[in-house]
Request: fold
Amino acid sequence: MITAFVLLESERTALAKLGQRLQSIEGVAEVYSVTGAWDFIAVIRVARHEQLAAVLAEQVAELEGVTRSQTMVAFDAFSDLDLDQLLADGS
Reply:
C-alpha cells in the first residue's frame, strides 16, 4: 500500500466545498482542513505508484480552486495501529 500526504492551498472561495470534493476522489482516504500555510491535507492510499500519479494529475490537480500542492510519499509508518488490518476489516 502506498500512502501519500498532499498539502493543498486553495482559493478562498473554494474553501467551503473543496474538502468534500477531495474526499469524493477514489483513493483519498482522509481529508483535513488545517491552519498554517496550507488549507487542506489529503491522505491518499493506493496500491501502485501509477495510481497515485493518476489521482494527483488527473483528479486533484484538476479540482477547481486548488492553487498549489505539495506531495510527500511515506516510506514507512510508525504507529501502534495496524492500518492495513483496519482497512481490510472495513473499519
Notes: The beta strands are 2-10, 28-33, 40-46, 66-73. The chain has one domain: 2-89. The helical segments are 15-23, 49-60, 83-89.
